[in-house]
Design brief:
Organism: Umbelopsis ramanniana AG
Largest sheet: 3 strands, antiparallel
Number of strands: 3
Keywords: Membrane, Transmembrane, Transmembrane helix
Order of helices and strands: HEEEHHHHHHHHHHHHHHH
Number of helices: 16
Helix content: 55-70%
Strand order of the largest sheet: 1-2-3
Shape: globular
Membrane topology: Multi-pass membrane protein
Main location: membrane
Family: Belongs to the ThrE exporter (TC 2.A.79) family.
Radius of gyration: 22 Å
Length: about 400
């Protein structure tokens, strides 16, 4: 739970381990909580425990836990040795220093503003600065308990106000900054696209409770970010009446799409750091992610096809490459699948829907775009499951962390 195991497979993983070590137990997972019931058939008694843990990402530690699980399932290590190893993994120091995470936020904001939101180099620079401030504020919020419930809304208001308040903000006529790429790129690390995709995967896997809870959370979280950005924008317009509330659909000064050859690897490495993957995994993860993005880019720009195909085929390519690597090399590839999915996530659509709901309540764009976010998540889910079916037609009982 702490290191990023696919949430829809958590129950399966623990049931396999408990069966191997001959423990009578049952497990139920809901977001951030695992209910564990241990049964004693001789005395007909049951003990139930609640394990609370926020889901995070640490691919380096998750890979080690996965290897341990495989050894345990094959009877190659004892339970005592496994417990000692788990303590070693949990207690070892962080591989990445805090300054590396700060730089990853800034680099991610810069790349995403230009790559995904059509911004100029200046918009990317502003997004990088605001992302850097966001990362510092996030660290500060961990030490101030009262900021916890207000973290997202306060930073979104600040980013919305700052992105709208830069000089020459009317980018359509003065060549200034564009609000959409500057603000959306700044909060790229907060977007709930992966949460929505996880929710769809859980629902497809018949984990109804966890999936529905996560889906509602993702939609409301997107609206919360959209509300904060919209509120910050409105506050600045209230202060400075010379600025228009309307944002241009196309930002001038956007660089050539050939620069994507540089921005895609930059964004990929940024997320490798964010996911705390080991450097030896960068090449595989980036290759799979770049292949998925290239497929999506080609379908969107050169092939006249429906949006459903644009969402499904790249996800299938990502899953096919990841599962193919596992089948061929007998190595763990979940981190590559995860990074590839981040390139295809519909989080930006969800944020746009939240912004549209509060800034243009009469257009109906908010709800329609929220549905687009769900539709995109469904496409990614189906693509990943189809790729898994190609390599594991009988299921993935012996490789619970290798695929979705």
């Amino acid at each position: 739970m702490r290191y990023g195991c696919p949430s829809h497979r958590l129950e399966i993983v623990i049931r396999q381990v408990s069966k191997t070590v001959r423990i009578e137990a049952d497990f139920v997972y809901i977001p951030n909580i695992m209910l564990m019931s241990f049964m004693d058939s001789s005395t007909h008694t049951t003990e139930t425990y609640f394990v609370r843990e926020l889901q995070g990402f640490d691919m380096g530690r998750l890979e080690e836990i996965y290897r341990l699980e495989k050894l345990l399932l094959h009877g190659e290590v004892t339970v005592e040795s496994a417990l000692e190893y788990i303590d070693t993994v949990m207690n070892k120091p962080e591989f990445y220093p805090k300054w590396a995470m700060l730089l990853s936020y800034a680099a991610g904001g810069f790349a995403s503003a230009v790559l995904f939101f059509g911004g100029s180099w200046k918009d990317g620079g502003l997004a990088a600065g605001l992302s850097f401030i966001l990362s510092i504020y996030e660290i500060f919020a961990t030490y101030v308990v009262g900021l916890g419930p207000l973290f997202e809304i306060t930073i979104a208001i600040f980013i919305g106000f700052t992105a709208k308040g830069k000089p020459e903000n009317d980018a359509a006529t003065h060549g200034g900054f564009c609000f959409v790429p500057s603000s959306f790129g700044s909060v790229i690390m907060l977007l709930p696209g992966w949460t929505m995709t996880s929710a769809i995967i859980e629902v497809a896997s018949r984990s109804w409770i966890s999936g529905i809870i996560r889906m509602v959370y993702a939609i409301l979280y997107a609206f919360l970010l959209g509300y904060g950005l919209s509120l910050g924008e409105e506050i600045y317009v209230t202060v400075d009446h010379s600025v228009s509330i309307k944002n241009p659909d196309v930002c001038p000064g956007a660089p050539s799409q050939w620069f994507n050859f540089l921005l895609v690897p930059l964004f990929s490495i940024t997320y490798c750091v964010y996911l705390r993957a080991m450097p030896r995994r960068y090449l595989l993860m980036s290759t799979v992610a770049c292949a998925g993005y290239a497929t999506s880019f080609a379908l969107s720009n050169w092939v006249k096809t429906s949006q459903q195909v644009v969402q499904l085929v790249p996800a299938f390519v990502v899953g096919f490459l990841g599962n193919g690597w596992t089948k061929w090399r007998k190595e763990w590839s979940f981190d590559a699948l995860l990074l590839g999915s981040f390139f295809l996530l519909p989080g930006s659509i969800g944020l746009r829907s939240g912004l549209a709901v509060f800034s243009e309540p009469d257009t109906g764009q908010g709800l329609s775009l929220a549905m687009s976010m769900i539709q995109a998540a469904m496409g990614i889910t189906v693509g990943l499951f189809l790729s898994t079916l190609c390599f594991y037609p009988r299921g993935t009982q012996h490789s619970p962390l290798m695929s979705f």
